[in-house]
Amino acid sequence: MKKHFGWTLIAPGKMEATHCLNRALRLAEKGEGHTRPNPPVGAVIVKAGKILGEGYHKKAGTNHAETAAIADAKKKGNDIRGASIYVTLEPCSKPGRVGACTDAISAAGISHVYYAVSDPNPTNRGRAKRVLVQHGITCDCLDRWGQAQRGRDIPVASQQELSRLVHRAQRLIAPFRKHVTTGLPYVTVKLAMSLDGRICDTTGNAKWISSAESRRGTGFMRTYVDAIMVGAETVRADNPSLLSHGKRNDDLIRVVVSRSGKLPKNAQLFTDGAPNLTLVYRDAKTALVDLGKRGCLHVLCEGGLALARSLADENLVDAWTLVTAPIVIGNRPIGEALRFKLESDGISDPKSGDRIGEYVHFTLARKTPIVL
Ligand code: AOF
Ligand code: ZN
Questions:
Q1: What whole-number distance in Å separates Cα of residue 34 and Cα of residue 58?
Q2: Which of 170, 291, 299, 333 has its CA at 20 to 30 Å from residue 276's CA atom?
Q3: What radius of gyration do the chain's Cα atoms show?
Q4: Is the CB–ligand 1 distance for residue 92 below 6 Å?
C-alpha cells in the first residue's frame, strides 16, 4: 500500500476486504483493555481504493468505532456517500449509551457494510443486516463469506487470508462474548515452565525462569486485559507492582486473592500511588463474580501456582498461556497445576509460535465458553 497525495491507496478490487479488515483490527486492538464493559471494535471507511476515515471504540460511553470513523472522515473533509465501511464487529442496531450505529451509517450515506463477526450481545445479535437492508444498504458478514459471495461479490483476493482475519476478530471479542453471555470475565492463566515440564512457582525460581525479555513480552499482556490477578504468596514473595514492563495501562485493575486477607500493608500494590485500583478478595470465584459486575472482560492470572490450581479446580479458566523457557530445573510438574484433560474440557485452538527471544509462548483456548 502506498501513500499518495495523502491518500492510502489500496491495490484495486480484490485486496479491499483483507486490507481494510486488517487495518480495522489493528485499530480495534488499541482499545483492548479500555472499553469495558463494551467490546474493542475498529472500523475503516473506503471508496474507490481510498481510505476516507477510520476509528475505534476507545471507552464505554464514547463514540463507537463506526461513528468514530465517520467523524474522522468528516474532519478530513471526505465525502463518504456511496462508500463501504469495514467493521470488526456487527454494528449495533439498538441505542444504548450512544445512538445505534446502523442509524449513523445510514445518515452518513454509506452504501455497503462489511463486518467480521456477529455481535454476541443478544440486544444486537443478527439485527444489523435486517435494519440496514431496510435503509437500502447492503450488508455482509465476512464470517460467512461463502454464503455472501453467492449473492454478491466480496472484494477479496484470498479466502484463506480473509478467514485468518475473521478468526482474529473472533479472538478479539472472545472476552466480550464470555462476559456478555455469562456475566463473568474471560480468564487467562499464564504459567512459566521449563523444558522438562516443571512449573515455575513464584515463591520458587520465578526470577530464574523468566528472562527480562520474556517478561517484557508477557508484560505486554497487561496492556490489553482489564485486570491482573495474583495470589497472596506472590505479593509476599515478590512484592510486584503488577503494572506493565513497558507500556502502562492505567485502566488495569490489580487483584490479590488472599484467604487470610493478611497482606503486607507496605506492599507496592497499595502504596505506589499509581492510578490503578487494587482489590483484595478471599477466593478466586468471588473475585471473578465481582470483577464481572465491574464490567471486566478479561482477567489475567499471573501466579502463583496455588491460585492457578484453584482456578483450574473450579473450572474457571478459559485459556492458558504457557511460557516455555529453554531451561531444565526440576520442581513441581506442570500437570499438577493445569489439571485439564484436553478432550473433556474442549481445550483446543492452540495459538502457537509467539516467539520472544528464545522463548516460545503457546496459548490453548477453550472452544466453548464455560457455563456455570
Ligand atoms: C458497535 N461498535 O464500537 C461497539 C459496539 O452502551 P453502548 O451504546 O455503548 O452499546 C454497547 C453495545 O454496543 C455493546 O454491548 C455491543 O453490543 C455494542 N458495541 N457496537 O457497533 C462499537 N463498541
Ligand atoms: Zn455501535
A1: 7
A2: 170
A3: 22
A4: yes
Hey, what amino acid is at 299? Answer: V
Q: Alpha helices, DSSP H only, in the chain?
A: 16-31, 65-75, 101-107, 128-134, 145-151, 159-172, 174-182, 206-209, 212-219, 232-238, 268-271, 284-293, 305-313, 334-338
Residue 331 amino acid letter: N
pLDDT of residue 139: 93
The model's pTM is 0.85
Strand pairing of 319-324 and 359-366? antiparallel
Whole-number Å distance between alpha carbons of 139 and 133: 7
Ligand nearest to the CA of 104: 2
Crossing angle (nearest 10°) for helices 159-172 and 16-31: 20
Crossing angle of helices 174-182 and 159-172, in 10° steps, is: 50
Report the distance separating Cα 59 and Cα 37, nearest Å.
9
Which grid coordinates are listed for 316?
Answer: 474457571
67 lines ligand 1 (CB under 6 A): no
pLDDT digits (tens, 9 = 90+) for 170-225: 999 999 999 999 999 999 998 877 666 666 654 444 444 455 555 666 677 888 99
- β-sheet with 112-117: strand ranges across: 2-4, 7-9, 50-56, 42-47, 84-89, 112-117, 138-141
Count helices and strands (H / E) in the chain.
14, 17
Residue 35's CB is within 10 A of a number of other CB atoms, namely 25
* Ligand sitting nearest the alpha carbon of 121: 1
CA distances to 134, 164, 183, 316 from 348, rounded to whole Å, are 40, 17, 23, 16
Q: Can you tell me which atom of ligand 1 is nearest the CA of 68?
A: 3
Q: Could you list the active site residues?
A: 66
Pairing of the two strands 347-356 and 359-366: antiparallel
C-alpha cell at 183: 456475566
Summarize pLDDT for 273-317 with one digit per residue, the tens. 888 999 999 999 999 999 999 999 999 998 788 899 899 999 999
